[in-house]
Amino acid sequence: MLVDGFGRELTEIRMSLTDRCNFDCVYCHNEGLGDTRGPMAPRDEEMTTDEVVRVLSVAADLDVEAVKLTGGEPMLREDLEEIVRRAPDGMEVSLTTNGSFLPGRAEGLVEAGLERVNVSQDAVDPEAFAEITKSGAYDRVVEGVDAALEAGLDPVKLNMVVFEGTVEYVPQLVDRVAERDGLRLQLIEYMPEIAGHPEWAVDVDRVHEWLDDRADRVETREMHDRKRYFVRAEDGDGEGMVEVVDPVENADFCESCHRVRVTHDGSLKGCLNRPRVHPMGELSEAEIRAAFHEVVGDRVPYYGEFMVEEDGEWVRNDEYVGEPLVVEHGRVTADDD
Ligand SMILES: Nc1nc2c(ncn2[C@@H]2O[C@H](COP(=O)(O)OP(=O)(O)OP(=O)(O)O)[C@@H](O)[C@H]2O)c(=O)[nH]1
Ligand SMILES: C[S@@+](CC[C@H](N)C(=O)[O-])C[C@H]1O[C@@H](n2cnc3c(N)ncnc32)[C@H](O)[C@@H]1O
Ligand code: SF4
Ligand code: SF4
């Protein structure tokens, strides 16, 4: 198993299969790659099925236990079922999707070996949903969640980005997961680092305080030091789980981050927020293995190392100012500033 210089074992990879999307959520960070808008047709730079499978196979040899397939919208890939089917034995395969393509495909994905799904849902009414996602697909998403549950992907996590445009809907979504079996809620702190608009951020401590009052019990997940709140339905015995993902300016979160990322065009990234990437393209398995070693060896905790606190503010560590944007077999090919 690979371990970085801060003692963090590499146990998971997050793999973006495309940067295309059929939605245009106002907050989207697109896994660190900028805009998702543009043509829906597959792009040449996307990894092929075989390339995806090769990277997964090397990761499995390095004892990576789980892969999260994401995007852009990963369900725009028609070979998604094949990718899931060909993922290495023993590697947990999960998916994060906007849910609009799950109706009709959820069952096939389960047959192929998909074990979990997270579905983004920021509101419980179509108008609010349309305003945030610039899409009229609210009903499809709700059907998608049902399809996932029917296909046996229980529990389904609903992902909600908490920012100025959604914070008022938090109580409704919390009630929904408390009332309905098989659902969990993940409240994700809005990350302005890549998406811009820092003024949209809301104080995540207030969300924690509100949940603390509402919950019967609270647990902390090892990964990312994430809090999990267990809430009861107002009028019944159901219990729902609400997890808070709060990475922004949170050194504790980064301290137990066991993930690296693969971009849709086949580059390895040691951190969602760090620009430095390592292209893997059509590399052999041995070269991909070497890329994993290099990227993991080069990891830094984003907050606390790449960003350091100075006079109460987080600023970029002088050591990394001007660090290369792209590294190719250890060679610098471009500078980011
Ligand atoms: N900064 C940062 N944000 C993360 C990280 N992991 C998840 N997030 C945020 O949470 C969003 C949703 O993540 P998902 O992939 O659906 O879920 P997950 O956090 O992997 O949770 P599990 O399904 O339980 O593994 C991501 O797109 C990010 O915005 C991380 O390692 N660092
Ligand atoms: C980039 S999307 C890709 C997968 C899929 N299209 C979806 O929306 O679920 C992955 C997750 O990132 C979250 N996300 C996007 N932009 C974000 C931001 N600026 N801050 C926090 N989370 C964000 C989304 O809500 C979603 O749950
Ligand atoms: S559905 Fe996902 S990838 Fe698409 S715009 Fe929304 S958050 Fe971004
Ligand atoms: S180091 Fe921190 S910011 Fe980077 S991916 Fe991990 S948790 Fe996210």
Automatic annotation (TrEMBL):
Enzyme's top EC category: lyase
Protein name: Probable GTP 3',8-cyclase
Entry function: Catalyzes the cyclization of GTP to (8S)-3',8-cyclo-7,8-dihydroguanosine 5'-triphosphate.
Annotated residues for binding of S-adenosyl-L-methionine: 27, 72, 120
Cofactor detail note: Binds 2 [4Fe-4S] clusters. Binds 1 [4Fe-4S] cluster coordinated with 3 cysteines and an exchangeable S-adenosyl-L-methionine and 1 [4Fe-4S] cluster coordinated with 3 cysteines and the GTP-derived substrate.
Entry-linked InterPro entries: Aldolase_TIM, Elp3/MiaA/NifB-like_rSAM, MoaA-like, MoaA_arc, MoaA_NifB_PqqE_Fe-S-bd_CS, MoaA_twitch, MoCo_biosynth_MoaA/MoaC, rSAM
Family as reported in the entry's similarity comment: Belongs to the radical SAM superfamily. MoaA family.
Keywords per UniProt: 4Fe-4S, GTP-binding, Iron, Iron-sulfur, Lyase, Metal-binding, Molybdenum cofactor biosynthesis, Nucleotide-binding, S-adenosyl-L-methionine
One Gene Ontology MF term: GTP 3',8'-cyclase activity
Pfam families (UniProt xref): Mob_synth_C, Radical_SAM
Biological processes per GO annotation: Mo-molybdopterin cofactor biosynthetic process
Organism the protein comes from: Halapricum hydrolyticum
Domain Radical SAM core: 5-234
Gene3D superfamilies: Aldolase class I (3.20.20.70)
Residues binding [4Fe-4S] cluster 1, per UniProt: 21, 25, 28
Pathway listed: Cofactor biosynthesis; molybdopterin biosynthesis
